[in-house]
Specification:
With about 350 residues, the protein is an alpha/beta fold. The protein has two domains: about 220 residues, Alpha-Beta Complex (Spore Coat Polysaccharide Biosynthesis Protein SpsA, Chain A), CATH 3.90.550; about 120 residues, no CATH class. Helix content is about 45%, strand content about 20%. The longest helix is centred in the C-terminal third of the chain and has 25 residues.
Amino acid sequence: MLTKLPKRAALPTVDVVVPCYNYAHFLPHCVESVLTQRGVDVRVLIIDDHSPDDTPAVSARLARDPRVEARRHAVNQGHLATYNEGLLDWAAADYTVLLSADDLLAPGALARAAAVFGRDPSVGMVYGRGVYYTDHEALPKTLSLPLGVTRWHGTEWIDGRCRSGHNVISSPEVVVRTSVQQRIGGYRPELPHAGDLEMWLRFAAVSDIAYVRGRPAAYYRVHENSMLRTQFSAVLTDLEQRLAVFDHFFAEHPVLHSAPLMRARAHRALAKEALWAAVRAYDRDRVDELPTAELVGFALDVFGPAKSLPEYAALRRRRALGAAVCSRTQLFAGSQVAKKAKNWLWWQSWKLRGV
């Protein structure tokens, strides 16, 4: 008598949306990082946003693999419309990833995320560590630490973002439950520069969030031209964009538990950051490069008691001496060292904890 073998359980399905504009030279490596993922059934969805380079030919060649599909816009739609097309109109798997054509998934990232989703239906978004690297360097070597998962109730995760005022996620390291993505919608056209943070907050408003520690989840390519975000002149713009995200989010979620308190915490965090940026400008004698008056005005506008913050007191001391004296004498070097140490500790903690 023949005994039927039990059927193998179907693998979790993952659609990886790859928007591409002028990144034909990066596209094959990106797609390869998806197709080599084990333990999941993947489909790559390439959307060419009317690139003038070789993207059509490269996409067609990659689409010879039955797991890869490609489409091309007749006219350029812009990055947000392209994202939303893939996330809302095309993706249909259990889980979805939005992966820029110049970024890479780390080995095993999708299977690790799928395992978390499979164990806990309340989780709507899983992320891991995103490793940064530049155009001209090889992928950085990373330590393999013990695997583990940290899970937060959604509101708890939102509160953490408000307390810091920062986005702790780049984007390629995120895997989402497709049903939740369809429920909350796509990227907001009115938030073109900090929409990722607002998207993560929306996920946390309706589901729990999990972080897989111990292994990289993705590699995020930092281009030389995108490093402009770190220049002094971009500080105020970045703060204004994050303020718009928090205000937009809480305007849409007024009944969220402790919403007024969390919004106030976000405003306080952004005010502290603005004031500290002005402090750094004095210590480096770069007040001509940074709009210090506008930064102080921003802090006072977003957080009424800003003058009671220690950063404001530090700024007053430096103003009394002048930027040249502060820079030449390094009178306040101790506070700078302490701040750097605090930031270094946060960075190490983020690698392990995801926040």
